Amino acid sequence: MKKMKRGLYLPADLKNTIRLQAFLAHCGVASRRACEKIIIDGRVSVNGNVVTELGLKVSDSDVVAVDGKEVLPEKEKRYVLLNKPAGYVCSQSDEQGRPVAVDLLKDSFSERLYNVGRLDMFSTGAIIFTNDGDFAAKLSHPSAEVEKEYIVESSLPLPRNLAENFKKGIRVDDVFYKAKDAS
Known about the structure:
The chain contains four helices and 13 strands.
């Protein structure tokens, strides 16, 4: 481990230089792939200069900020399973001012946590929050083939052939959904 000027310890692979998106993932910002989009969107600065292109390498002496807030490598990885109540959005913030699920964790955890996957605002159930970008990517990327099980309750009658259609695959708002099994 190498000591940073701020008193934090970096993993051995951060001793020299590292790609900016990997550094951001070590800081718990998001997965490396998601960090690439954050960089391209112009939300990241290094030593006060906004970065919008991939390929930049940073060292432990650089000051890296996302949305104007300095980020540092997490000393400890955190994994939290939350039983999300209805009425909370799975997002870091909400432009409409609705409550966000991560706020339910702020009094208990000082790390910047973000949700792995999402449940819609009115859904309840288990959702994982973490500061480990690589873990989040492995868990949520389709190539990991992690099965997810959902129990759906509705106050409205469901179409008779809904389960069969889900097995074949359906498109909702330009997103294709296909169930391994439905009954």
